[in-house]
Amino acid sequence: MFSFRGCGRWVAASLTKQHHPSSRFSGDSAAPWTPHFDVVVIGGGHAGTEAAAAAARCGSRTLLLTHRVDTIGQMSCNPSFGGIGKGHLMREVDALDGLCCRICDQSGVHYKVLNRRKGPAVWGLRAQIDRKLYKQNMQKEILNTPLLTVQEGAVEDLILTEPEPEHTGKYRVSGVVLVDGSTVYAESVVLTTGTFLRGMIVIGLEMHPAGRLGDQPSIGLAQTLEKLGFVVGRLKTGTPPRIAKESINFSILNKQTPDNPSIPFSFINETVWIKPEDQLPCYLTHTNPQVDEIVLENLHLNCHVKETTRGPRYCPSIESKVLRFPNRIHQVWLEPEGMDSDLIYPQGLSVTLPAELQEKMITCIRGLEKAKMIQPGYGVQYDYLDPRQITPSLETHLVQRLFFAGQINGTTGYEEAAAQGVIAGINASLRVRHKPPFVISRTEGYIGVLIDDLTTLGTNEPYRMFTSRAEFRLSLRPDNADSRLTFRGYKEAGCVSQQRYERATWMKSSLEEGISVLKSIEFSSSKWKNLIPEASISSGKSLPLRALDVLKYEEVDIELLAKAVPEPLKEYTKCRELAERLKIEATYESVLFHQQQEIKEVQRDEALQLPKDLDYLTLRDVSLSREVREKLHFSRPQTIGAASRIPGVTPAAIINLLRFVKTTQQRQAAVDRLPKTDQRLCNTDKLEDRQL
Amino acid sequence: MWRGLWTLVARAARGPRSPRPCTRQGSGAPAPGSGATIFALSSGQGRCGIAVIRTSGPASGQALRSLTAPRDLPPARKACLRLLSDPRSEEPLDHALVLWFPGPQSFTGEDCAEFYVHGGPAVVSGVLQALGSVPGLRPAEAGEFTRRAFAHGKLSLTEVEGLADLIHAETEAQRRQALRQLDGELSHLCRGWAETLTKALAHVEAYIDFGEDDNLEEGVLDQGGSAWGVGGGNIWHLSPQRPPYSLSFPPSTADSEVRELEVALGAHLRDARRGQRLRSGAHVVVAGPPNAGKSSLVNLLSRKPVSIVSPEPGTTRDVLETPVDLAGFPALLSDTAGLREGVGPVEQEGVRRAQKRLEQADLILAVLDASDLASASSCNFLDTVVIPAGAGSPNGSSQRLLLVLNKSDLLPAGGPDPSPDLPPHLLLSCLTGKGLDGFLEALRKELAALCGDPSTGPPLLTRARHQHHLQGCLDALGHYKQAKDLALAAEALRVARGHLTRITGGGGTEEILDIIFRDFCVGK
């Protein structure tokens, strides 16, 4: 059970059994005692916690509904956070004052930045995390968040009402019905059900319904969604067995040590909670032909592998590795599950063989000869909803005020879930307050890339973030996530604390000032050569070099520059983060100049909004092919930019759409001149700015 | 100002997630937010009295200044006569009327320039190439001028009605044209290059995204590439201690593939003049000693009396040009003064011009009098012109020569070959027409080789667009080699691939991911 220590402000109320069998915990002592909330978040995983906390930060009275309070913040699969692309997402979540980075800085046992030698745009912050600590710290955070109440309970159904006429959608959600028949009313509902929608666990030939090992799946809710008309798909994933730590012979394996010093995940932390020397190592071992043999001989006992349901291409089980890349040796990382955990997570050994064969397979592996399997690996199959049914604010097209985040949208990974959670939470709150949605463009962040890919292209395998998905990778870096998102989060969403906002403001102005100072210092290349003999500056150039150009050289950093030109550069060596970020800005300066131009072009298209209530199937006055109509109808792009990214939507169709927008604008301008206006017409006012 | 949409429009046509269009990364690129400057021939293709070439965009003024001799802009909206010259070579191109329309009072609302040049294909292609060399300028996409005008509110709604159709039609035309051109070897080449580049990029991307996080596994890498694990790439900084979580695999195959691609592209671009020749016509120069019958041959080939013909040596004193259709190939045929020494100043100048024209020729028709092979002028011509050209060209020039022995009617009928020692040659009588068929067939072969017969020879690269993108690709590959930062190196490859996929289509991220997951066992 989770610890209540240090959580002084929650209120645990025992309730009348007949009506409220579940207990409610509140971080806000003044929370009203009525089952009516601004935002209700269903699910306490990585999407749910971020969504609930974000909605509460935005000022909405929020309820987090979860099967069990003690599984809030549970890391159901790997004991690690971050990585390449995923670390980028985490930094953006942090820039919006999300939780996962701060919790990771308090719960890691092995911090390591990946890609250190490949350029700062693709650095991947990563850490092995203590599962127990993470859960504890997350629960502490959630239970202490003002305006956020937590309640145990399984949701069975949604309460639907007539839609608001000024928005699109067939229904409007106004609350949820729990398994016990009780109801909770809500202005907005966020669904973050993870793998629980008709979840099935598979080991060998055995299949049984479960959202996670030991947890009940959500079947009623899945049926409700299907009945409403959502397009449902099926995905699968898997997790490896867990091994007893003391049964492993680490002495013969390769040991990997953490970074020294540790780099914190969060912008607001200078250090992490634990010293590098106190952190835990990881070990590396490999599979061998015996493992292949066991897998291949027992395929008939393995229904997860035989199933046609799509699994990820990039996180395959040992079975699919053996099948797709035969006669190879595969890596297995032995990762600690926590400081005082006696479990080891063998990353790379995700398997769904019958349990006894799993143990047999494990003991073939070097270092694991005497290993004791504590829990078998298993596969999970679950429902997801085609993400083209949601808007970039993560609200569904079909049901007003219903938001989806996390694996329900077809993604995989804690970080992807957290990223969607923050956006869903913010938007659920903004929706209640009748504010415009908070949408991140793919030019602004990996979160934007993630959501744009999902909502315009959909996915048929669990979607995971890679840096190669971001076309503006050099601009969307882990180091500058705060400059990209913190200000918007503060001003438009209200989800960012004053302290973080001020810090980001200081950093941004210092960076701008630093860059202009570095641009202003100019010497001939020969003088630079004398000043900084360590740098391989070619003296052939006749033009004077700016300090910013010199900083581009790999071997030059601010420290070195400041030794050569102490005034005024000394100032910029004082803050480590500032010095590093100046160096990174210099590295990419010339390319960013061009990228900025392309970004502006894309943003102009993103600013051209398509009316939300367009019925593409019956729309007259626009010449569109049947195929294009159907595609537009299904994805409902919100901007011309998004429409143009849908495969099969032709340039001519885009022009026709533009023309339509222009005509509509003229017509509505005429209507606007009539005395009576309503909300829908006001929405189109923005079109006036568009220089069409 | 609003190019983004149009680039997206172009992107949508090629499928999702194509890389953004790539701007040339030159020092003279326009300021951010201003968009590229485009140029195109606005009057119809083909021969016409006057051709109009237009530019639109912020670098229009710069383009106008670069091409016109007085380096200041003409007054706005006033036609001025200017000498156009190539900014790189200073070579004069044409006397042209130019017009300067500073934005927003212009057709597109941007700064625009218009060049009214003489309509010959050589002039037009010369001016287009000169414009292409100005930093910040690129050839316009289909309908791009109209689209820009639309974007800047320069077209009324009714005028815009036709825009979608126009774009559709032009894209279709471009597609058909591209299909025609890309059908066959060029398409094969470009696709091959794009595939190589996509694979190289996929491997670099795999190295970035999965090298350390997901245990790209060494055994599998042998399958993915031939030389994995061998350090020596210029951008992979391997420390003696391997980073944890990593089996570093310097993707040196990417490096070597990029190097090979660079060589291939460079060679192809040097070859690209062939494509230009087809449009503007090959330069065919008729040369020989005086009174060999050069002018008779020119008149015969052009089927009209271009040159005055007389039995008197030295009748032709200047270079006479006439565009002709030779065996289906457009050509510019030049008649020249007979080459000889020790004549008067006028004829001497004619000889000087003839020699200059000979240097510029793509194909020399060397004409000798079959009945007068022993004369000093014939021998001299053989020694100075025919033999050097026949000996091949050590400097790699592509000059070709066809040796014609005219006046075969003067030879005794059925007699032996008058010139067994000469290089390969043809006998012809311009008077009787005997040997003409054989000569025309030989000429067709030479021209086909020169222009690159699309049906048999190497593919043509006729469009400035292709050249532009191939050059852009090559430039980006240069940046790849220089990049010290792997993210920057990958960016250069992305830009390079973007250029190639503008020719071949395709280019989505999914393609890259497919290769990654096909070649590598990525997984935890």
UniProtKB/TrEMBL annotation, chain A:
KW Oxidoreductase (keyword) present: no
Coiled-coil stretches noted in the UniProt entry, renumbered to this chain: none
Classification via SMART domains: GIDA_assoc_3
Keyword Flavoprotein: yes
UniProt cross-references to InterPro entries, sorted A to Z: FAD/NAD-bd_sf, GIDA_C_N, MnmG, MnmG-rel, MnmG-rel_CS, MnmG_C, MnmG_C_subdom, MnmG_C_subdom_sf
A single GO BP: tRNA methylation
Necessary cofactors: FAD
Keywords: FAD, Flavoprotein
Matching SUPFAM superfamilies: FAD/NAD(P)-binding domain (SSF51905)
A UniProt-annotated Pfam family: SAM_GIDA_C
Family membership noted in the UniProt record: Belongs to the MnmG family.
NCBIfam families on file: mnmG_gidA
Protein name: Protein MTO1 homolog, mitochondrial
Organism: Balaenoptera acutorostrata (Common minke whale)
TrEMBL record, chain B:
Source superkingdom: Eukaryota
Keywords tagged on the record: GTP-binding, Nucleotide-binding, tRNA processing
Cellular component terms (Gene Ontology): mitochondrion
Region (Disordered): 15-35
SUPFAM superfamilies: P-loop containing nucleoside triphosphate hydrolases, TrmE connector domain
Keyword Membrane: no
PROSITE patterns according to UniProt: G_TRME
Biased composition (Low complexity): 26-35
PANTHER family in the record: TRNA MODIFICATION GTPASE GTPBP3 (PTHR42714), TRNA MODIFICATION GTPASE GTPBP3, MITOCHONDRIAL (PTHR42714:SF2)
Domain TrmE-type G: residue ranges: 281-448
UniProt record, GO biological process: mitochondrial tRNA modification; tRNA methylation; tRNA wobble uridine modification
Pfam families according to UniProt: MMR_HSR1 (PF01926), MnmE_helical (PF12631), TrmE_N (PF10396)
Gene name tied to this protein: GTPBP3
Protein's organism: Balaenoptera acutorostrata
Record family assignment: Belongs to the TRAFAC class TrmE-Era-EngA-EngB-Septin-like GTPase superfamily. TrmE GTPase family.
InterPro entries hit by this protein: G_TrmE, GTP-bd, GTP-bd_TrmE_N, GTPase_MnmE, MnmE_dom2, MnmE_helical, P-loop_NTPase, Small_GTP-bd
Protein name listed in UniProt: tRNA modification GTPase GTPBP3, mitochondrial isoform X1
GO terms of molecular function: GTP binding; GTPase activity
